[in-house]
## 1
Amino acid sequence: MFRFPVSLGGPHDNPKQPQSSDEQPHRAMMDEVDFFRSEKRDDQNIITDETKRVHVKRENSRVVDDDDRSTGINTGLNLLTAHTGSDESMVDDGLSVDMEEKRSKIENVQLREELKKAAEEIQRLKEMLSQTTNNFNSLQMQLVAVMRQQEDHHHLAMTGSKDIANKRHEGSEMVPRQFIELGLPTAEVSSEERTTVRSRSPPSLLENSSSRQRGKRLLEREESPETQSNGWGNPNKVSKHNASSSNDNVSAIDQSTAEATMRKARVSVRARSEAPTLSDGCHWRKYGQKMAKGNPCPRAYFRCTMAVGCPVRKQVQRCAEERSILITTYEGNHNHPLPPAAMYMASTTTAAASMLLSGSTMSSQDGLMNPTNLFARTMLPCSSSMATISASAPFPTITLDLTESASNVNNQTNNNPLMQFPQRSGFTELNQSGLPQMMGQALYYNQQQSKFSGLQIPTQSLNAGESVSAATAAIAANPNFAAALAAALTSIINGPNNHKNGDSNTGNNNVRTSSVERQ
DNA sequence: CGTTTTTGACCCGCGC
DNA sequence: GCGCGGGTCAAAAACG
């Protein structure tokens, strides 16, 4: 049902990648074998280029025969295509020096290079996965919006009246507004609709906040880094300039408004930690510290420094009542690839922000029906103390309370699928910052599912790792790519210590089919 | 020497 | 209008 045009482009743009990643194990193994058997071949070999090539092929075929006689054809193909270069260099070294020591060193260097390549490949796949996840979330939000629109139309048709015509008009507005606010292409939006959105959307965004002017000011501030690629400098001048010339560049304003709005949604994480900050995989630069009223502990302000102009910020403050509790508030979405550890947290903020903002941008007439409340209704019954949503705050905020005792957490996770993943990933250790993101993923999934299943809390739900794996499986038509990506996903999600979830790969198909069935 | 942290100043919105 | 509080800036200091 979903398509992933952006992410699918990655692997297919580089058709070598799946192949190379697929070949890594073979290559390493072959090289080892070559190393131990090299002396015979060196004696037999002749130095001309042609015979070198011939030798390489024979060498590889020998190895294949020794290792796996039944599948000689396939492995032979792999070796012919991928091993020629390294083997040739090895032969050259053996001929020029003829010392096993040196060859072994070269072998080691080659193996390290290959490992490095493999690591880079994995890293690239992880980044692609991160992007895919974000795109997936955005698409999910679009789907929710469309379904909401359909629901509204259905409801309005049931209670047909004159007022309903007006409401329907609002409902038809809603979707394009939603699309725009998500920062997605507005090609589907007609110019007429865009005009409506232009004139009405910004106020509607702020109506839900407690202070319209405050929101307006923040909106102006937050526009500047988005419209200017230079980052956060001189927000006031830029915003004023933008405000004065806003009539000229409507789409830019819409885009910046959407992104600024996205940035306003916050995900707050309460966790016990003796460390000054929660290590979440990102690079942060502290840009300020303030003594907040009512709290003897200072509040520190950080911004992401992994990319120039990244709008993500976080606030760190210790709880006044209990100093061991660290409250970390994330705001915004990263505009750059992330390492896996950071991807977890970033995806949380993205998903949570998407939920909150979709809620805040839905029509205000159906308060409890918006995704934010779907989120609440999905999450809170399971663990009311684990996640709370603050709608009265100036910014919509999801608070994840991770300070519960381990026993409580375990008890809850037994019945709460949302907590399965954190529990698995050892989230009780605060430095394992995977949980919030996993929460976000799982929450998002559940929110969507609850939407699809008639707003019921799913009794059988996907955990975050499975959801990601499911998306991966849905994306990857190429079996090689799927295998490589699944391996990478498993390593990302489960971490190095958790191999018992190796069967999650086998569960991917089930997850995918079940999720597809739901759709 | 480049990067990060510290810290006082500043800006802005809000309430009185 | 004024003070307060939250948030940010930017120069200086500290650090690696």
Note: Residues 211, 213-214, 217-218, 221, 236, 285-289, 305 of chain A lie near DNA strand B (CB under 10 Å from a C1').
## 2
Amino acid sequence: MTCSSTGFRALPLPIIQLSLAAVLKCGQSFRWTAYPLKLDPEDASSPTHEYRFCLRDRVVCLRQTATNILYRTVQPDPQPNANQQELRDAQTLLWLKDYFQLDVDLALLYEEWGSRDKVFLSIQDRFSGIRMLRQDPWENLISFICSSNNNISRITKMVQSLSKEYSPPLLSLPTPDGSGVKDTYHPFPPPSALAHPDVSARLRSLGFGYRAEFIHRTAKMLVETHGDSIQPQDSDEPSEQWLRTLRDISTEDARAELLKFVGVGRKVADCVLLMSLDKTDVVPVDTHVHQIAIKHYGMKGSTKGKMNMTPKLYEELCTKFVQVWGKYAGWAHSVLFTSDLKSFALHGIPQPNSPLSSPVKNRKKRSREMTDLVRILPTPPSTPSVSESATATEIACNLSPAERVKKRIRK
DNA sequence: ATTCAACCTGGT
DNA sequence: CCAGGTTGAA
């Protein structure tokens, strides 16, 4: 069934299985654009946003209702006939099932994690539908090389900027708000485009900082090892295909291959393993995850100051999380990570409490993009007003207000 | 084998 | 000083 007026098709899917608003903006992929929609007052479950993503040959547009994913395919050439459009949508549907890994039952996993872990149990209802995307390894690798010592907002700008600079525009499309403004969409550039000699200097001038060399040298390594372009203009380059083959080898072997690239350490390698190479139990440990482990999972360390992430400690944390969450530990980690993301918090969920709540002025600053989700999400009855400076995971631990404050003191 | 400063840039 | 770190040299 297709809605003839909008061109969207419907894929039945409970919201519990996938929350686009969370998943597309929680720092897995950095190339989705979200457009706010005019809400239909007649229909309480009308989509709040449209999300768009540019693939090699098409732009995929998504919306979500309580019961469906609505999807639409746009390709460059004008006026496809009904049959062509049907074929394209069928292809897009296959892509969607693969990209969102819809054969994995997320509800079942949440159940499992909740039964194993009290901390998870306490946040799962407010952060449902967070699943791992199955991304293209090449794009994912470069994106996470950009992520080192960086924040999500700037990573997003850098990845957009990469696409705009190094791959030609695929097509332009009016934004869904009816303003008449058009956006232009670029696919992610292939390795050969970033292996070109002057890329490094150009990226520097675009504000990539020291990551510019990493990106260029990684692209160059790939192209030199596996070749740049085969005959068909339209398909993947050999190095992209080779990266995909890492899905078929062991986690350890795949990680060893990834670590050969410049700008790729353990953490970035693990992100690629988890997010695009099907290694579901890999937990990328960053300072953020480290702090969560200390505060809520009894790992040693101090919440004050900055602690070095040694390889040994990294392993200990991985082991701990796999022990707690099991075979899909990496997926569970993503839920916890998202629950503490500030950038995620502003997503149009109505504030239950008055914004005039003054007291927060002297709040000890917390590192990173975290915030007090409890303030704007429905607050559980057990945790009243103190919640105004507690993160979701803090609430989870049932700490007293005093304890929370205590644990937050730094320096 | 371990520890540690330096690294680009932008935001608090 | 910190951001979803990595590198190369003590």
Note: The CA atoms of residues 201 and 212 of chain A lie 7 Å apart.
